[in-house]
Amino acid sequence: MHCAVEMLGIVKRFPGVVANDHIDFRVLPGEVHALLGENGAGKSTLMQILAGLYRPDAGKILLSGRPAQIHTPRDAIQAGVGMVYQHFMLVRRHTVLENVILGLRRYGLFLDYRRAGREIERNSREYGLEIDPAATVWDLSVGEQQRVEIVKMLLRQVKVLILDEPTAVLTPRETEGLFATIRTLAGRGAAIVFISHKLREVMAVSDRITILRRGENAGTIRREETGERDLARRMVGREVIEEIEREEPAAGEEVLSIRDLRAFDNRRLPALRGLNLEVRRGEILGMAGISGNGQKELEEVLTGLREPARGSITLGGREIAGRRPDEIIAGGLGCVPEDRQGTGTAPGLGYRDNIILKSCRRPPIRRGLRLDYRAADRQADRLRREYDIKVPSLSAPVRLLSGGNLQKVILARELSARPRFLLAVHPTRGLDIGAATYVRKRLGELKRQGAAILLISEDLDELAGLSDRIAVIYEGKITGILPARDADRERLSLLMTGQKAENGIMETS
Amino acid sequence: MRPLTFITFEKRLEPGRGARLAVTLASLFLALVLSGLVILAVGVNPVEAYTALFSGAFGTLYGLSETLVKTTPLILTGLAVALCLKMRLWNIGAEGQFVIGFLASVLIALALPGRPWYLLLPLMAAAALVGGGLWAGAAGLLKARLGVSEIITTLLMNWVAILFSQYFAYGPLKGLDGFPYSPAFCPGACLPSIGWGRVNAGLFLALAAAVVLHLVLKHTLWGFEVRVIGDSPKAARAAGMKIEKKIVLVLALAGGLAGLGGFVEVSGIEQRLSPHTAIGYGYTAILIAWLARSHPLLVILVAFLFGGLYTGGEMIQVGMGVPVAVIRILQGAILFFLLAGDFLMNFRVRFGKKVSSER
């Protein structure tokens, strides 16, 4: 029997990274094949190549044993490959029926709506995908929209269906429904590729599992031959964390304390579900976790950009939960945000203006109603030298700066305000080694000066190298806090996927 | 995400100052050519028409004085749009704010007849400022609180303002002779002439407003925050700036400026209420602000050019029988080419197939 899909020697490079490094990947007809890996392991890229969104730099694709030329999503659909993306491709103002038949030719010039409606209803009944063809898409829940996407693919008669992290947006109940649909589809001979980093779901639904690690295929195994622990180990690799010289924390007093914090995300689903944490003076608390487990919402709540639903946050003893950003900043918060171009800087404004973004409300920059731009220039110039920021001029728009220089602008602004507490989110992501090392050095210095630092990162090496303690966040809660010296990858990766390790972990109440 | 096959647009990093000027001038030129075709169609030589337009507007002392008369309200409405554009808000309602300022001035003038100028003029100006400010501030409040697009609200409120003012002209303030005109103002309610045609003290008020707005934007914390919010609302919010409050304030101030435009027009020129207070100064203001790149001092210059267009347009209508609508066509064409030019300035156009569309 031929494989439904054979991808051989696929290479895809993006500027600065090799997303797929000679990957071989085979899917059989009638199987549910999970593609597992950490963020950035190359799962989505590989499948977007199969779906015609990207073209590989090398390698070839065979469908049912025959070489396939897939250059566009339309080619892929015609070859029987359909993908349901994380961000749905639906026209929100149109009905389900209109969305489903969009691009289909077989309903004629004058669109046989009745026939299309019947086909949609038959397919959705058969596969347990309950949807109303007459509903408008923007009235639908995320789960329902996902069903529309799947029905869309069914009416295109795809033989290979790729689902990119389909459960990320679903409630547990909806997930169960989706799994039932997936099994029915596979039972009728379709090949399903299920992209995920959730071990439990992978074990629950798939027949075989392929693990990607840093752009390489780290093995394909049958579900019966493995378990969650084994998968976790394969996913993160077995490398030992290198030991970095670290000073023992001076165990200072609590600076930031979070109690039973709850908040919703933009979809009104719970994102933080009773989070507890404290950060002490002179310590770096690392926060590990797979992205999408509440980190973004935590950043927003801490900086005053998102209203918490419940709970308390004290900074230096003063309650800041639900306060405005300016009040929290005045209370001693500094922040190196995840989103550097947008939240961290005003990209169209000059370097000088970005340096005074926060200090503009206080003397010496502010003098009554007036802004002292000469004092601002002096400050910007001093920081430029102190942080070795390469800018063409003080007024050059910062969006022209490189990633490393942009991050230095943010660091210079935030650290020069001498924050009592600094929140740093993915501070070295995407930076070259030199800039990343510089950022880490500065964070270490700030810690020695007595600040409390919360470092949210996906880079386990960085967390282990910089932090004094590492907390793991999973589904909006802290699943465990380990002293950095006890934190090995395996234990962290288990906590990151929601499982408690047996010993040596301080549970937080 | 299928690549476009024939034409692709690539984002450019930074259009230079020279490119901006060139695009502006080219837009003006193309607009003149297009409108020239229309002039040709009504049987007039476009070159002669443009020459007459230019010399009519700027070539004689009388023409120049009339141009300045039109420049005065245009500066104020132009500032009203420019200020909002600085924060990426589209104030399409300068027309209505102008009318409200006009009406508020009329009400004060008629309520206090025969009072001295030092009482009446400041009161009328204040009423126009507050009236226009509240009118636009309402749109600001809707935007800040509920996220309602200010483009829609400010535009729709224009009709409310215009009909409201017409109600007064046809109703409570109708003249004793039955015509829809209010009684004329007493001398104390009129801005003094400077002794050159109809040019009046309102011109200095408009110039002062432009200079003050420039200084506020350039040198104050308030102006800095407007710039930051205009560039990146997210960064502004994260830095602790109060965006909602600023939206309301900026729209209210803009409405106040346009309202002042209504005040200088009624107190300096019209000196009574008529059903025809809305004559497009608020819409022309959008063009002025865009051409001036929302710089207050450039607004003065551009408003002067557009004042000339109004004056010259009237002159060629009388002198050569070219309908004044041609001037509207010219204005529209300028905006059209300018927007197209801005697009070309920010994107590089390539013909042929794009290699890939990577993120």
Nutshell version of this structure?
Chain A is of the alpha/beta class and 509 residues long. Helices cover 31% and strands 25% of the residues of chain A.
User: Which shape of chain A, going by the Cα principal axes?
Assistant: globular
Tell me the radius of gyration of chain B. Answer: 22 Å
Number of helices of chain A: 16
The amount of beta strand of chain A, in percent, is 25-35%
Shape of chain B: globular
Instruction: Assess the beta-strand content of chain B as a share of residues.
Output: under 5%
Q: Mind describing the biggest β-sheet of chain A?
A: 6 strands, mixed
The CATH architecture of the largest domain in chain A can be named as: 3-Layer(aba) Sandwich
Derived from helix and strand composition plus strand pairing, the structural class of chain A reads alpha/beta
Can you count the beta strands of chain A? 22
| Largest sheet entry of chain B | 2 strands, antiparallel
Give the N-terminus to C-terminus distance of chain B in angstroms.
Answer: 11 Å
Alpha-carbon Rg of chain A, integer: 25 Å
Q: What is the H/E order of chain B?
A: EHHHHHHEEHHHHHHHE
By DSSP, the count of extended strands of chain B is: 4
Structure characteristics:
heterodimer, A: 509 residues, alpha/beta, Rossmann fold, 3 domains, six-stranded mixed β-sheet, 16 helices, 22 strands, 31% helix, 25% strand, globular, disordered C terminus, B: 359 residues, mainly alpha, two-stranded antiparallel ribbon, 13 helices, 71% helix, disordered N terminus
What does this structure look like?
The complex is a heterodimer of chains A (509) and B (359). By secondary structure, chain A is α/β, with parallel strands linked by helices. Chain A has three domains: 5-236, P-loop containing nucleotide triphosphate hydrolases (Rossmann fold, 3-Layer(aba) Sandwich); 244-332 and 419-509, P-loop containing nucleotide triphosphate hydrolases (Rossmann fold); 346-416, no CATH class. Chain A is 31% helix and 25% strand. Chain A is built from 16 helices and 22 strands. A six-stranded mixed beta sheet of chain A has the order 6-7-8-3-9-10, sandwiched between helices. In chain A, strands 16-19-20-13-21-22 form a six-stranded mixed beta sheet, with helices on both faces. Chain A has a four-stranded antiparallel beta sheet with strand order 2-1-4-5, with helices on one face. Chain A is globular, with a radius of gyration of 25 Å. Chain B has helices at 17-41, 46-59, 61-86, 94-111, 117-146, 150-170, 202-219, 221-231, 233-238, 243-270, 281-291, 296-320, 325-346; strands spanning 7-11, 193-196, 199-200, 347-351. Chain B has a domain at 70-292. In chain B, a hairpin with a 2-residue loop joins strand 2 and strand 3. The longest helix of chain B is centred in the middle third of the chain and has 30 residues, at 117-146. Chain B is globular. In chain B, the strands form two sheets. In chain B, strands 1-4 form a two-stranded antiparallel ribbon. Chain B has a two-stranded antiparallel ribbon with strand order 2-3. Chain B has 359 residues and is mainly alpha-helical. Classes of the chains: A alpha/beta (509), B mainly alpha (359).
